[in-house]
Amino acid sequence: MRLFGYYRSSATYRIRILLNLKAVPWQYESVSLVDNAQKSAKFLDMNPAGLVPVLHTGDAVLAQSAAIAEFLEEKFPTPRLLPDDAVARAQVREMMHTIGCDIHPLQNLRVLRYLRAEFSQDDEGVEKWCRQWIGNGFTAFEALAAKRSATGHYAFGDSLTLADAWLIPQLYNARRFSLDLAAFPVITSIDSHCSALQAFIDAHPDRQADAPGT
Known about the structure:
The chain folds into two domains: 2-79, 3-Layer(aba) Sandwich (Glutaredoxin); 86-199, Up-down Bundle (Glutathione S-transferase Yfyf (Class Pi), Chain A, domain 2), CATH 1.20.1050.10. Strands 2-1-3-4 form a four-stranded mixed β-sheet, with helices on one face. Helix 1 (10-21) packs antiparallel against helix 7 (162-176), helix 4 packs parallel to helix 7 and helix 7 (162-176) packs across helix 8 (185-194). Strand 3 and strand 4 form a beta hairpin. The two termini are 22 Å apart. It contains nine helices and four strands, in the order E-H-E-H-E-E-H-H-H-H-H-H-H. The protein has 214 residues and is of the alpha+beta class. The protein is globular and about 45 Å long.
């Protein structure tokens, strides 16, 4: 499998975590968002939305991280990252989408570029915007995790789920934009545990081939 993405893309980061957790062999193809490689005719032919990640499975080309995650969960069911119970599965997806739908789109690179170009926001203004929306989403996620995490090691129950693969990359962005995490003790506890797991370590942006200095 080939994963097209960018080292600092949190959506790509999610899929790196999942591929590592499921021990799926994969190759990384860098798409430099800062150089607008996602707007090239070649890339747009793969994904007309011009977004990463894109996963080439060998048989198909898939975009949208949630769709890719569901494919990987069905194709490679071990380890299982969605619960057996239908309500529990919906609750995990709720936590995923609290990040993927309510936070991530508002601090996507194309949105931040628009803030700068159309509303003349400087670095301080852009970071304030990001802290606002990440903080709002984390407040909701913290409340959910406080009820649903069994030990504070994982977002849901007492084992890894897709919710953890969504949360850890968002924490990377929260720190990039200097969000104070003191109000989110359950989230930071989950982060401390998951970030020490090898699949998460290897997926970290700083360890990717297209990261500066690597």
